[in-house]
Design a protein that fits this description.
Two copies of one chain form a homodimer. The longest helix of chain A is centred in the first third of the chain and has 16 residues. Chain A is 44% helix and 15% strand. Chain A contains 13 helices and twelve strands. Chain A has three domains: 43 residues, 434 Repressor (Amino-terminal Domain); 130 residues, Rossmann fold, CATH 3.40.50.2300; 141 residues, Response regulator (Rossmann fold, 3-Layer(aba) Sandwich), CATH 3.40.50.2300. In chain A, helix 5 runs parallel beside helix 13. Chain A is elongated, with a radius of gyration of 26 Å. At the A-B interface, helix 4, helix 5, strand 2, helix 6 and helix 11 of A face helix 4, helix 5, strand 2, helix 6 and helix 11 of B. Chain A binds a DNA duplex (30 and 30 nucleotides) through helix 2 and helix 4.
Chain lengths: 343, 343
DNA sequence: GCACATGCGCGAATCGTTTCGCCTCCACTG
DNA sequence: CAGTGGAGGCGAAACGATTCGCGCATGTGC
């Protein structure tokens, strides 16, 4: 592999001159040609490791996500990547596959590999650990959280207005006449899941529906209308069935992410329950799905593309050292596709 | 940020000794402790750029995929990552979003960033370009193709036995009594798509069904039973409708990837055509989906996990310089979930 | 024709590691 | 007790780039 020294020899110019030219500096026209020719002849390409060692910048960004098997994150990443690429950065994506240790490991490896910034959809990692990671190098690593925030960790974040998302969904169900409404949320230690639950509670409250919901069945057991799943297919499937097996099942249901929506729809299908007709239903994210099933589903769609774009923009500002007012938290509105069932 | 020199000063030992210990060498017990203590006290972490500059290895692998919004690739990546991680490598994923230029760019950037190996699901890039990229550095960059091969590019590959996948699917349709069978394939310059078409043709041939299929409509136009889509939702949607609008539409259909299957199912739904009942149907990949729709769909499931794992294993062997017999092409069997429609 | 500003080119130091070859020291053997 | 061998430590030279400060031309204004 040829180095800048070879280019120097081939062109008869000094290292400094070559380097300067290669980094956008001015050289005499004659020398410009000689360098170009030498580079071409030798097939020279800069060694990024050497450059990074010297400059302390890699022009790469690490993206850490809980999984890559869900369209939601794929779509965020796509927009993110495009925004960063336009500014000359390359993004490297890692998934931690919902594994706590892996999440930490990936973050550490990225820092060590000297990315210039990190985009993170955090799940298990604590504020303490994040602070440690962010300051592992001399200066503070630029970082932007997406989709989820970590309580106690002060950081730029791009999130959905989750509260209003479920508020709107539940409100719609109430307007359709429902009073006994169930919800399947994700693990409450994920901020997103928690906020969605709060939105649900508040909607009920505002409409004067008793929130400490659930009734008691004939055995006197409390029948809880807030079920906590794990954001996966099985949770949606299982909790849907649990709801329907209650003595006094809800007449409407809100399911708050993609996989759980898929699970719930599957369970409904197996029980011959027609969503939207037999019970009220609002799902999340599965926009494709709502074109397929019949009747169409009401779905909350999240602005994944915008989210990725904003995250990229904020990170870019931080990386170029632009002084921003304290951590920015951008809250994006989701969109409720409201399909009303008609006979 | 502290360096190995600081550790040296703090511990009173030489650079060479520290480095040796940090890389698994033996030092006296007493020194071991002093180094550990110094590292801890200073929060020292090796600078990977410097290390890579010296060793010419990064312990990272680049993974290049056409998209991250499809579960198929997410699942391959997950298995891949796990396999590589167990061997001490970190994988960085890039998507080229079905963009030809981006595909090239991502590959080049990865090579320049000095990954130790590359996993690629190639689409537009030519054998010539790939050879160039593979040899851009002094030695040949270890590389494994997944899911797709590039004609003329000699390389380890892990692919599906696509021919038998569609052969089996079509055979099943034939056994169910169909004779006028359509197929929606992907762009024929993707090896995978091409092979799937060949499997379709061969099945028809073997069962003595005229292959240069399609009939003529009343206007004398040829009605083609092989439709070429672009592996996306819209293609599936559009081509399904085209088939159904024919004067003499096929009585059964095979759709050969995830997105197109989704598109076709959606179109069928909108036309009130019940797949499996009104027309024979076999889709690809959408395993979740077939639990949802009614009646269940017949689906070809690809062994994504195994594919990722094998790809990782082969790449590891190449990277560690293990001499393998000439390029290995591993062909994995897919699995046909055969759901027979009963009244 | 002279002094001065300006634009370019160059030498050399530096980034943080690894590694080669040599040296020291100690324990063991005969 | 001298000789030997092996383990572990050390100094110094890389790896391939960037960059600081200096010096040499060339061009400008008087």
């Amino acid at each position: 592999m040829s180095t800048i020294k070879d280019v120097s020899k081939h062109s008869g110019l000094s290292l400094a001159t070559i380097s300067k030219y290669l980094n956008g500096g001015n050289v005499r026209d004659e020398n410009r040609q000689r360098i170009d020719e030498a580079v071409e002849a030798l097939g020279y390409r800069v060694n990024r490791n050497a450059r990074s060692l010297k400059t302390n910048r890699t022009m790469t960004v690490g993206v850490v996500m809980p999984t890559l098997s869900v369209p939601f994150f794929g779509s965020v990443i796509s927009a993110l990547d495009q925004t960063l690429r336009e500014a000359g950065y390359t993004s490297f994506v890692c998934s931690y596959d919902f594994d706590r240790n892996l999440e930490l490991e990936k973050l550490r490896v990225l820092c060590n590999n000297n990315v210039d910034g990190i985009i993170l959809a955090a799940q298990y990692v604590s504020a303490k650990e994040l602070n440690e990671i962010r300051n592992a190098r001399g200066s503070e690593m630029p970082m932007v959280l997406v989709d989820r925030t970590i309580p106690g960790f002060v950081c730029d974040s791009i999130v959905i207005d989750n509260l209003n998302a479920t508020y709107g969904a539940v409100e719609q169900l109430i307007n359709a006449g429902h009073r006994h409404i169930g919800i399947i949320v994700g693990p409450l230690d994920i901020s997103t899941a928690n906020e969605r639950m709060v939105g649900y509670r508040r909607a009920l409250q505002d409409y004067g529906i008793h929130v400490e919901t659930g009734s008691r069945n004939s055995a006197g057991q409390h029948e809880e209308l807030i079920q906590i799943g794990r954001y996966d297919f099985e949770s949606g499937y299982r909790e849907f069935n649990n709801f329907m097996d209650m003595e006094n099942p809800p007449t409407a249901l809100c399911v708050t992410n993609y996989d759980m929506t898929m699970g719930a729809v599957t369970a409904a299908h197996e029980r011959n329950i027609i969503l939207g007709k037999d019970i009220g239903f609002v799902g999340f994210d599965a926009v494709d799905l709502c074109r397929i099933v019949s009747p169409p589903l009401s779905i909350v769609e999240q602005p994944t593309h915008l989210m990725g774009q904003k995250a990229g923009e904020v990170l870019l500002k931080r990386m170029t050292g632009e002084t921003l007012p304290h951590p920015q938290v951008i809250r994006l509105k989701s969109h409720l596709h409201n399909r009303i069932y008609k006979e």
